[in-house]
Design a protein that fits this description.
alpha+beta; 2 domains; protease; Peptidase_M20_dimer; manganese; 4-stranded antiparallel beta sheet; Alpha-Beta Plaits; Aminopeptidase; metalloprotease; single chain; 14 helices; globular; 17226_t:CDS:1
């Protein structure tokens, strides 16, 4: 049984110290820890050191694991450390592993931000705007704030906590899978369950627990021809143009309403069963919430059920960009000699990344052959991750659902998600333990987008939620 007096005092302390927590998040947002930018690599290390100092302050024992080097943009760079922390080692208590990441997506003011992305700004509605506020600095700091609050009110922490924070999640999590496999029967041996707070509510009003994610296969296709860029006035109409070939190939991948045109891609999609169909009827979600998040009414489907199914349980293909093309302001009549197109396929159970790659490669080569072009084609899958599904009936989810009811006074929706967090499946397979996704932010937080935000309310209540979840874990019977 959870001690309600302890929770009441915990909640009261969090409420009284929320400005302190916002200031702490402001410090973290000010560190531009962009893992995909070689020029920001030192900042990623700086963010890791910032967390280490907080570990020390809170009495968390830790190891900053060196996972080696990698090559990016022609440079050999040191990978940021993976931080393994331990708080408590009482054999009578359950041990929960929490995962998060301290790196962030790139952000420039000229991308369309209303304020400097590296300065946390709070608007009149309590929106804390800044890169990484929701993804994932707010949630990982939330765990540490919960530890601090227990210390300040003089209450024993309810579980043993294992911490795994990495600095490369936004750039492929290099080194993480190998570390998890290596430490599965060492550092992670005593773990009873895993909790990750790196996703979002479905909408903006009701919390959720997430038990499934789509996988991702990310492709780079390169078309090359002339030995150098050419003047279109001199050479246009006399050579096969790589850009023309690429655009035609892109047009063959997907229809405007999202139908994937690559043969074989949909063959292994798990069948929609009646019991799953029934779950969509009780989920609190309105199309207006989607339209608010995308700031338009460009949704494909006119009803909630089809929209959620398209987001959760069917694959999608998205075209992301072209490298090597002229994109600066003004007029330039260049004919690029080589262009690379980037697209990804979000996969679902029971799709396999290797089969997806084989289907894509075969299809693109066949379509390229039909063009009769003398250019050359290269197809590369640069990243492949399987979809993930967990069991929402596990005590780990029951504890989280109980915590949601205590903090938000409602039962959470059980959801799947359209995004991909590959480490969920890695932890599940390597440790053979249940993995829970317990989101802090709302569906309109704009992670990876301009004006990313975390509402003060979600940040404060999220700290309460994370702490309460751990108390519920301690009280619940493991079966």
């Amino acid at each position: 049984m959870v001690n309600e007096t302890v929770l009441k005092n915990f909640f009261k302390y969090v409420d009284e110290n929320q400005d302190h927590y916002v200031d702490r998040l402001r410090e973290a947002v000010a560190i531009p820890s962009v893992s995909s930018d070689p020029d920001r690599r030192e900042d990623v290390f700086r963010m890791g050191n910032w967390l280490i100092e907080l570990f020390k302050k809170l009495g968390i024992s830790y190891e900053a694991v060196d996972v080696g080097n990698h090559v990016m943009s022609g440079k050999t760079l040191k990978l940021p450390p993976i931080l393994l922390g331990s708080y408590g080692n009482d054999p009578k208590k359950k041990t929960i592993l929490v995962y998060g990441h301290y790196d962030v997506q790139p952000a420039l003011l000229e991308d369309g931000w209303n304020s400097d992305p590296w300065k946390l700004v709070e608007d009149s509605t309590g929106r804390l705007v800044g890169r990484g506020s929701s993804d994932d600095k707010g949630p990982i700091i939330g765990w540490l704030n919960a530890i601090e609050a227990h210390q300040k009110i003089g209450v024993e922490f309810p579980v043993n906590l294992k911490i795994c924070f990495e600095g490369m999640e936004e750039n492929g999590s290099e080194g993480l899978d190998d570390l998890i496999a290596r430490e599965a029967d060492k550092y992670f041996k005593c773990v009873d369950a895993v909790c990750i707070s790196d996703n979002y509510w479905l909408g903006v009003t009701k919390p959720c627990l997430t038990y499934g994610l789509r996988g991702i296969s990310y492709f780079n296709i390169t078309v090359s021809g002339p030995g150098r860029d050419l003047h279109s006035g001199v050479f246009g109409g006399t050579v096969y143009e790589p850009m023309t070939d690429l655009i035609i190939l892109f047009s063959k991948l997907v229809t405007p309403n999202g139908k994937i045109l690559i043969p074989g891609i949909n063959d292994d999609v798990a069948e929609l069963k009646d019991e799953e169909m029934e779950t969509y009827r009780s989920i609190e979600f309105k199309l207006e919430e989607l339209q608010s998040a995308i700031e338009s009414k460009t949704n494909i489907y006119d009803n909630e059920t089809q929209t959620l199914q398209a987001r959760w349980r069917y694959p999608s293909l998205s075209i992301h960009g072209i490298e090597g093309a002229f994109s600066a302001p003004g007029v330039k009549t260049v004919l690029p000699c080589k262009v690379s197109g980037k697209f990804s396929i979000r996969s679902v159970p029971n799709m396999d990344p290797d089969k997806i790659t084989a289907c894509v490669d075969k299809f693109l080569r066949e379509e390229f052959g039909k063009l009769g072009s003398e250019n050359k084609l290269q197809v590369e899958c640069v990243h492949g991750a399987k979809p993930w599904v967990s069991s929402p009936d596990h005590w780990n989810f029951v504890a989280a659902a109980n915590a949601v009811e205590k903090v938000f006074n409602c039962k959470p929706d059980l959801t799947r998600e359209g995004g991909s967090i590959p480490v969920t499946l890695t932890f599940q397979d390597a440790l053979n333990k249940n993995v829970l996704l317990l989101p802090m932010g709302r569906g309109d937080d704009g992670a990876h987008s301009t004006n990313e935000k975390l509402d003060r309310h979600n940040y404060t209540e999220g700290i309460k939620l994370l702490g309460t979840y751990l108390h519920e874990v301690a009280a619940i019977k493991s079966t």
